[in-house]
Amino acid sequence: MDRLSQPIPATLTPDPRDVSFHPLELIKFFRQFPCTPWRDLLYTLIWNCMLGTGFYLIGAMFGGSIGSPRIFGIYLAISNFIGFSIHFLFMLGDRMRLEPWARRRGAIVRTLYFSGIPTLGVIIGFTISSEFFDLGFGNWLRSPAWILSVASTSVLISLILSAVIVSRERETRVQAELAQQRLRAERTEREAALANLRALQAQIEPHFLFNTLANVTSLVDADPAMAKHMLESFIRFLRASLAATRMESTTLGAEAELIASYLDVLKVRMGERLRYSIDVAPELETFALAPMLLQPVIENAIRHGIEPKVEGGEISFMARVEDSRVLIEIDDTGVGFAPITRGGVGLTNLRDRLKLIYGAGASLTVREDSASGAHVAIRIPR
Amino acid sequence: MKARALIADDELHLAEHLKARLQHLWSDLEILPIAGNGLEALRAIDAEAPDVAFLDIRMPGLTGLELARRIETDTHVVFVTAFDQYAVEAFDRDAVVYLLKPVTDERLAKCVERLERKLSAAERAPALDDVLAKLARALPGAGGRLRWVRALKGDIVQQIAVDDVLYFQASDKYTCVITREGESLIRLALSELAPQLDAEVFWQIHRGTVVNMNEVGSTRRDLGGRVFVRLKDGKTELPVSRAYAQRFKQM
Question: How many CB pairs under 8 A join A and B?
Fold first, then answer.
């Protein structure tokens, strides 16, 4: 019961900032670990070494020889200087709120940001490495070859970064959509469950109860036999309804009995204004179905169809086999429907319960007869 | 001059019982023939101008409340009800006279006493318009979103669950209702129908189109920047006019 009364949160879209976009996550293996700042630092280290190794191998291929371990070490070091520069620049950008600003400003600003930072990182990285290893990159700013090197490295890094960001964002969107769908499905199920509960709980409609008792009181002196008859029918109805609330399922025969006692009571009250007929095919007497599924429809027909009509009307309840399904028809010759009606909760409850219990196998159609009044047809799989 | 009363109730036994008890407690009272529905009651009140009218609330034709608003004669109204939570609360608040069914002699006696006093003091019947107007607005069944619409398809008139509707399309003074099963027509202009729909679920995408967002699978934008919604059935695509494209910008 408590689970049903808790609200479902309105949105489940994850904040894009929570989504890490570490390039290493392009490799599926690395996505399984939870995103923390320390994890990202480690990942950057791994990433730098991978890139460093890659560049070394490319260099070796072009150079025609595998250089010494020292050269390899230098490649690794340079990669790490560049890599961590980029890492810390991004951290700085996020801390200073530049990154969310850039994201909001549109595609061009975003691209400039996400390619500008790597470029800056590359420059800083190279500069630091140059100082550290005394590689004499001092004048490299003036050398076109080096500029080309820097440019191509940054472009490469930017491309990789973009690939990562785009793929991660698409994944986020897909996840968000899935979450929304799950949310909607959960909501429908919950509403149906609530409808189920409500239908079971709202057994004795107070108006019916008090009106009936009032009638019995008024008849006790004037027509005791009639009073007795009415009371007996009412007791039968009460007994059947209360039993229904405690059962998982009932039979079509029992439900028809319940409806008969209900209409019996009403007939004493409404006199000539109510005529009714109940016709259940004998083989369907023991057909199992959910309790209090059909009685509310009858109640509806009386309350909204026949009671408001000055001359009253007729209700017919019929159940028979139709192909692979059981067809239950509840017709009344009451006032019919207006173009739009507020309410209609009873019918909605029925529709929800049918969906929940039988899924697509059951159907509900509500039509008007040519002479006005309503025709409700419920089809349930056997 | 004798006081005259009218009893209006569609349930004959209850009306007869009230008549009997009333006669017993107020012997001077002349009780007019019982009215079996709201329209009959209105006619009788207009014609006979009784001093008191006992009105059942739930009656065919006109309800007791609707009836009371139309009374023009100087008639004291007493509502009679089996159970009407909202009405009773309102009546208590605004000191409107009412009786609960089944009517006990004790309560009826008190009511009779009050009425006799009012009549002998030649008190005018109080105006109930305000209370009744408030009640009419607050009635249950007027609650919540629209769930069903009455749609015509050829000579079949059907109630369609609003949740099953894919989209509504304006068609002159009527509205086309499109569901998975097909098309039908509802005798109401889209401009009247749209405000009654749940605005979270039903979005207006065009001056003549309102779509059920639960049935929308995806959106697309063509080269000219126009937006289209594609329904989950995979086949239907609906254009979104520029005026309504705002809502889709985030997508």
Answer: 118
